[in-house]
Amino acid sequence: MQEDYDSSASGYIQDTFEGISHTFTDVEILHTSDANIVAKAKRYGRWWLLKGLRQEVAAERRYQQMLRKELEIMMQLQHPTIVTAVGLEDVDGLGTCIVMEYVEGVTLSEWLKGPHRQSIRRNVAMELIEAVAYIHSKGIVHRDLKPQNILITSNGNNVKVIDFGLADSDSYAVLKQPAGTHGYMAPEQTQAAKPDVRNDIYSLGIILKQMKLGLGFRRIISRCTSPIHQRYQSVNELRRDCENEKRRLHALLWGSIAVVCLIVVYAVWNQTTTIRKDAIGTHGALRSQNAGVTDLQGQQDTEVEEQSSIQFRKRQKDDAIDAGCQAFDEKVVATGMNEHIDTLSYFLYLRSDFPDILEQSYSWVEQYIQTICNDFTEEEINYIRAEIQKHQWDVMKIWETKINQLKETYDQSIEE
To answer: pTM of the predicted model, to two decimals?
Structure first.
């Protein structure tokens, strides 16, 4: 029985099974430079990124040292915002390569061409700053930060910093030379070979400027790109200023929403109060007229006719109110705001057009009132408007309750 078991198990130990290979297959060249070649390939059914040397320089010791130095630096970095290296291997057709995770996404320069809201851009910027802060915490300077070396994942818009070919630290005594990319490298990098965290801070400033984060970040960007002694001396200083600016923007957004809500509430309350006063005056006048009727039979006939007329007009008003509420609901559904509020999980994810929708909602009611104003008296129109606005307020009250709950959670997280 033991012999049968061993024989059966050994059948699974083979180079390829069920279309999954332990060697690299489906090799596709993605990019070449003066010294390097970058490709993607499959192994065990998963895509990997391979970085090796071009055939023309593969035998030169200097380039071999650079490739190994890049691997040694990458192996020190284990962070969600940094591309992960797993080792150095010989790959058929490519030679010795660094094996890295393959990231589904686009470069930051490509991503910035899309219509992303400033709030999302600021989140990406903060992730990038976190990535550089982590790199520096390991005593490493990237020295080639640029949009082409920053990937944004397709799933979640997360940052992945790549290409540590020019990275350096004080731990290495070899391959010291000025390095960087024109337009992103700090002025002192053209002369100094010693790595300095302020080199990366300058590059961050150029990148943040291209991300168009808003007027509030101009001062921060200006300090990043100042002469080296006036620059932020660490990424932690830069990160603190960016976080403070984000909090200020969030406070302004919440303040704007609160003002719009108050305006809408006041408008609804004022309109409702006016209508109630008009209704009381109308009812009082009708009672006075009925009291002056002395003929009993005529009074009974009149009451029957009035009752019938009142019931008919009431049905007409109820129908108009129902139609108005339905029209309002259709407008709200068209904005997608109901579904957004129902699934909203974090206050900062509140849609930026929320204040506009609040303002528009009042005009929707008035647009509907204009379509029926010829069918009713002024008092009836005021009554219909008030009832539809009550429905409007009920919808907004649900929104306000949800947003207030998320705002309290957010404020607590800030305090903690």
So the answer is: 0.59
